[in-house]
Amino acid sequence: MSANLTLAREGAVARLRLDRPALHNAFDDALIAALTEALQALGRDPGVRVVVLEAAGASFSAGADLNWMRGMAAASEDANREDSLRLARLMRTLDELPKPTIARVQGAAFGGGVGLVACCDIAIGVAGATFGLTESRLGLLPAVISPYLIRAIGTRNARRYFATAELFDAAEALRIGLLHQVVPADALDAAIDRQLALLLKAAPFAASDAKRLVRETAATTDRDRLDHDNAALIAALRVSPEGQEGLGAFLDKRRPGWVE
After folding, report:
1. Is-above-0.90 flag for pTM?
2. End-to-end C-alpha distance for the chain, whole angstroms
3. Helix (H) or strand (E) holding 86
4. H and E: helices and strands count for the chain
5. 52 pairs with which residues across the strands?
6. In terms of Cα–Cα distance, which of 122, 149, 148 is closest to 210?
7. Cα dihedral 169, 171, 175, 178 in deg (nearest 10)
8. Which of 53, 136, 166, 206 is most buried, by the most CB atoms less than 10 A from its CB?
9. What would the pLDDT profile of 80-109 be if each residue is shown by its tens digit?
10. Residues near 142 by Cβ (< 8 Å), separated by ≥ 6?
């Protein structure tokens, strides 16, 4: 772990915390590298079933660190391309992580911080949180995070907020689909715990593979192939050890072995 990133384990739950509160958990190249590496390790860890992405201090993440931005503004186009690819790798790693992920949004998120929220499977925020895709004010665009934001909030909302760079509150984030739930600050942990309890009742493979099913189904235009692939998937799941245990537990009216 980096000094700016901490990991706590609670049984099968891993809590990965951005820990630069004095800088509003802004990204720099070191934090991007550390977060990518940590996520990859958690994805490989068979003992981890759920990852909670959270942050220390008042803000979730302010996006790019000002000193990092200053350095990249002075760098070459090739250096900026490589730097942006590292951020793209982080977002894709989080988006495709083979574990369910929850964003615990306790404060403001801007730029790449909004991208992290969009990449998580479940996002819960406090009523006082604010959000912004403010890149256009700097002559930039949220290009690297755009695939995840467009998928989360839709094309019409993306066209508005990418262009205007206006700030929006948690209620609007809920309306457009960036957040799944908005709660008072003192109810945030209870809301996270409810989602964790649900995820830990689900079969480990089924919960982790749900996002792959959604991603591939949404991307497939060949309906015949989609029917064939999904029929093959459910057939394989039914005869798998996990599927057999789940079906057997249901029929026997007992808890499956993965429920603690």
Report:
1. yes
2. 28
3. helix 77-95
4. 11, 9
5. 15, 102
6. 122
7. 60
8. 53
9. 899 899 999 999 999 999 999 999 999 999
10. 111, 112, 114, 115, 133, 135, 149, 162
